[in-house]
Write a structure and sequence with these properties.
Elements: H1 3-14, H2 21-33, H3 38-42, H4 50-64, H5 69-73, E1 75-78, E2 81-84, H6 96-107, E3 115-120, H7 126-133, E4 138-145, H8 148-161, H9 164-167, E5 170-174, E6 187-192, H10 207-210, H11 226-238, E7 239-248, H12 254-260, E8 265-270, E9 276-282
Parallel strand pairs: 3-4, 3-6, 4-5, 6-7
Antiparallel strand pairs: 1-2, 7-9, 8-9
Helix pairs in contact: 1-2, 1-4, 2-4, 6-7
């Protein structure tokens, strides 16, 4: 099997599960053969080894069963950074990069101030780690997740991506945010991409999501609002006077979220499709 034959094999077999089979096929071959993607076009007749061919077929079978590439290769690029990923954490989505960018722009308004950050439901750690890597004034970070396995993934990413000095500013905490979190300090930035899918909608999600991603990172309870109600309480208690909170949201819950956060100053921020995807929150003094 040559590189060109491998491309055609994948394109044919993945067409039912992929929205962009050419991109996926090239990515898979590049990873297996450890070559840049342009190499596929320059040397289409280069043969695969037997081991590479076997690996390709194995990955193709997994992908045909809707397993996401991020879980197959255990990595996902987010905000230009490669994160380690496994099925104990939600796969970072491109739209969440808008949340990170908003946070970076906010923090840059205070170049001479040491700021504290908190991330609820940190998962792979992609939000706080991306912010730390792109700012210089975060002096302390609390990253919370109910899953100890998710915290292990986040710690692995921190160890890989951060300098030893940067690693010291993060406190990873395994906790249910509905439990007593103790006396938390005031934070200048609070972030979260909480579970927001109403429980009854979970079975209707795409197979690549419902069959592989952790349900605990998706299920927002009966109405999809349970985490927002609790985070609203935590923001009221723990956001500094000049601080900002920003949450990723389910666009269909706008009316309910307006009611939940009515005691704050807030505005909705759209994603690249124009849907209201984030809520930016400030204390109302």
């Amino acid at each position: 099997m040559t590189l060109e034959q491998a491309r055609k094999y994948l394109q044919l077999n993945l067409i039912a599960v992929s929205a962009n089979v050419t991109t996926e096929a090239d990515y898979i071959i590049s990873k297996i053969c450890q070559i840049p993607s342009h190499h596929l076009l320059m040397y289409p007749n280069q043969p695969l080894t037997q081991l590479q061919k076997k690996c390709l077929q194995n990955i193709c079978n997994k992908r045909k069963n809707n397993m996401p590439l991020a879980y197959i290769f255990q990595e996902k690029e987010f905000f230009g950074i490669n994160f380690y990923i496994n099925n104990n954490v939600l796969i970072p989505r491109p739209e969440t990069e808008i949340l990170v960018e908003t946070c970076i722009n906010f923090l840059k308004q205070f170049p001479d101030k040491k700021l504290l950050m908190c991330d609820f439901g940190t998962g792979s750690g992609c939000i706080p780690l991306s912010i730390i890597l792109n700012t210089k004034n975060v002096s302390g970070t609390l990253a919370i997740d109910i899953s100890s396995k998710a915290i292990s993934v986040a710690k692995q990413n921190a160890n890989t991506l951060l300098s030893p000095k940067q690693q010291t500013i993060i406190n990873w905490k395994t906790s249910d945010i509905f439990s007593n979190l103790g006396s938390l300090q005031k934070f200048d930035l609070i972030t979260s991409n909480p579970p927001y899918i109403p429980a009854k909608q979970i079975p209707a999600l795409e197979p690549s999501v419902r069959n592989f991603e952790p349900v605990g990172a998706l299920d927002g309870g009966k109405d999809g609002l349970i985490f927002y109600k609790r985070i609203a309480e935590l923001i009221l208690q723990n956001l500094s006077k000049s601080g900002m909170a920003i949450l990723e949201i389910n666009p269909i819950l706008i009316d309910d979220l307006t009611e939940i956060f009515q005691s704050f100053q807030y505005k909705f921020i759209p994603d690249l499709t124009g849907k209201k995807r984030f809520i930016q929150i400030f204390q109302n003094f």
